[in-house]
What does this fold into?
Amino acid sequence: MSVTWDEELDAIFGGDLTAALGYRTPAGGVVVQAVAPIGLRDRAGGTLGFTTSLGFSKKLERLAADARVAMAFHAREHGAATGTRYVLAQGTARVIEAPSEAQRATVRTQAAEYLGPARTGPFWDRWLREYYVSRVPVEVDVGRILTWPALDAAGGPELAAGAPLPARPPEPQRPPKGGVGPRIDVARAARRLRATAHLLLGYAGADGMPVVVPVALTADDERGLALRSASALPPGGRRAGLLGHSYRPQLIGLLTRQHTGWLEVGAQGAARYAPHTEVGYRAPANKTLLLLLNGALAKRGVRRAATAAGGAGR
It folds into this structure.
């Protein structure tokens, strides 16, 4: 059942320049990725939105296989929203792979408002064709909204709308066959994460919905990353995602570091994260260079998606 929300929350949903999306993996973990909501929301219909590219085939496949997602509104800089509330909206996602012209027009209008006007002309129309055409909206039917008074999500959440939280924390998960220890260079991962402004951890809650909370990186060694959370983390071991990111006005100059790995939380709340995979992205702080890069990445992504679809059809 979808829910609605008050004006204060609507101002956050409509004003934050970025949000952290948590979505499920086939193995029961969560990936956390920064997305651009660009104010896409329907308060009466109980939906939030963001845009994605059809070139990101793995994410689209995972959303199709398991639509449970969470959107964490965790950062106020460079946006229109004010206040210190950390907001986590959980629900089910629906990728609109063939948007109507009216839906595309809405995305173009919202994108221009939040990210700046689109570049047009013979060169830009050709270079950015895949970037704009391949970007599609995703609607999230919101089923629960949790809030914390401060952006560090200290203490327990307040249920702002929707279904109550499960009474018990999620049970620990079975360790992966490949082991729970780090599989990449921990010191290098820690160094890169410390260069980002926001660090968020994602895991599956007791009802299977992704949970995304802010954390701080306090130390690192050969065993992994020591994390501190102002919000209580469930005890035991589980698959989890970690996102570090920074951004500038109009999302120019993006820096992201994404990990999947194993989270272990002790009885006293001490958390250690062993990163297993790593991907990253640094965008130029110049709008022209950013659009040139976006155009190239979109062309490559669409080609890869087409190749993968052709291979699957044989």
The longest helix spans residues 287-313. The chain has one domain: 7-313. The helical segments are 7-15, 57-65, 101-115, 122-127, 129-133, 186-194, 287-313. DSSP finds seven helices and 15 strands in the chain.
